[in-house]
Amino acid sequence: MLEDKRLKVFAAVVESGNFTAAASSLGLTQPAVSQNISELEKDLGVRLFDRSNRGEVRLTEEGRLFEGYARQILHWYKAAREAFNPSPLAVGFKPEKPATVPLDPATDALVWSSDGDLHIEIRKK
Asked: Does residue 117 form part of some domain?
């Protein structure tokens, strides 16, 4: 059975070129990445990667074909998830002129940075 996690692991291995870097980027162990790829290969009935003795991996012909499908599946899975669980809207603006904003000393909430962007911090005192 294809799972979102396995597809993410597959994509991370493709991007990084090895299991160790993929594991690091995903916050997993290298054996967990290897297990996910092995299970994915078993489910599909094909070898997705050629592995070298130095730990590097390259996509097989089947792996290159599957990469396109995996990326599309991940894209549509994300779109469906966002349709049912929309994330909050973030609105930003850049003022025409620098402004002086009186700050509430209890929160120090509004902080203008040197690049003109507004950063909001909430500090518990």
From this structure: no
* Type of residue numbered 19: F
CA distances (Å), origin 90, targets 86, 87, 108, 125: 12, 9, 21, 26
Q: Which domain holds residue 47?
A: 4-84
Asked whether the whole model's pTM tops 0.70, one would answer: no
**What CATH number does residue 74 fall under?**
1.10.10.10
pLDDT in tens, 99-113: 555 555 544 444 545
How far is Cα 19 from Cα 48, in angstroms, rounded to an integer?
13
Give the count of beta carbons closer than 10 Å to the beta carbon of residue 14: 20
Is residue 52 one of the residues assigned to a domain?
yes
